Amino acid sequence: PDPMPLPRLGRGSMGGTQSLALPLGKGPHQVGCADVMVGHTWQGLFLRLFYPCLPRAGAERPLWIPRYEYCGGLADFAHRSRRWCAPLLNAALGSCRVPVSWNGPFKPCSRRYPLIVFSHGLGAFRTLYSSVCSELASWGFAVAALEHRDHSASATYVCPAGAGSEEWIPYQRVPQGQKEFYFRNKQVHQRAEECVRALRLFEDIDSGKSVPNVLHQDFDLSVLKDSIDLTKVAVMGHSFGGVTAVLALVKEPSFRCAVALDAWMFPLENALYPEVPKPVLFINTEKFQTPESVAKMKRLSSRNSQTKIITVLGSVHQSQTDFTFLTGKLLSRIFGARGTLDPYKGLDITSRAALAFLQRHLNLEEEFHQWDDLLEGIGDSVVPEAPFCRSNL
């Protein structure tokens, strides 16, 4: 299947009140976020950092879609006319905000926070997983949500040195006449390398190097020095980002485990499967996977007894993105955003299973093992092993 179901937008989809109500994190920490861009070329790095922060009265909340250009990119990705689809998306979703403190004061911690590097899916960008990223940050993680520059984001940009301008990198389809595997395989390698560069960024900050943020934001990266535990680093992603996380384990020994949300396994070459050295938690939805993809996951779980595969019943591919929290029935139907499972319960299952897995493999002192049953697929709406796949998918 296509790695991200395409929205079917109709002109009448504005009917009724549409909004996006993202949940607050349930953990003990308030959450802040800041955008970080390092370097002036596509070889640099662009990410949104979610982190535990101190409470601040009247804190600003960031926009969920940070710029109008992303609406145009989503329209392109969905094979829709920018002329009407981008303004429609902007009108429906442009004013939605993420319930976190924008550039909020970083909360110091004597124990240091573990780090998660997060990779988005095809046609997405750095903010579309704010619900799961802020949930994990509320439990005491720093989460670096990348915006990939391999032409798989619906849109992204660089700020060339000295130009005072932006250069936008559009979403790119598989070129005609090119085999999809080779095109996507090259992208997944670039994405995994960006995950490794994100880790290097935090290592540089921790070593006291001055790392200028091209975006000139109010968040000073030097506050992260001595605050991130670089011995406890995981990589996580959804769909194309899920397989990116698996490949990042091969490329970087410092990543101790991966959490793959409904991973699109297609782009990874077979020769690399025996090379995956660390455990992976595959959290699948009920409707997306193909038999080929599931076989690849099982190949990894047969090699490593700590690799787990679970399926969340009543969920669809978009259930693991913020789109699942669209409150307007029309818009959520348009985006194929909801399964039958309540989205808040779906987020709960995903984040708690991930926390239990991370505690186990990052050796955390927290009591996330209270959710160990979820790792074994025990509980309401979750089952062990991969979803049942019909070969005609």
From TrEMBL:
| Annotated Gene3D superfamilies | alpha/beta hydrolase
Entry keyword annotation includes Cytoplasm: no
At the top level, the lineage of the source is: Eukaryota
Q: Which GO terms describe its biological process?
A: lipid catabolic process
Does Lipid metabolism appear among the keywords? Answer: yes
- Name the residues annotated as catalytic in the UniProt entry: S239 (nucleophile), D262 (charge relay system), H317 (charge relay system)
Quote the EC number.
Answer: 3.1.1.47
Ordered alphabetically, the record's keywords are: Hydrolase, Lipid degradation, Lipid metabolism
Q: Which Gene Ontology molecular-function terms are recorded?
A: 1-alkyl-2-acetylglycerophosphocholine esterase activity
The EC class name is hydrolase
Please report the name of this protein according to its UniProt entry. 1-alkyl-2-acetylglycerophosphocholine esterase
Gene expressing this chain: Pafah2
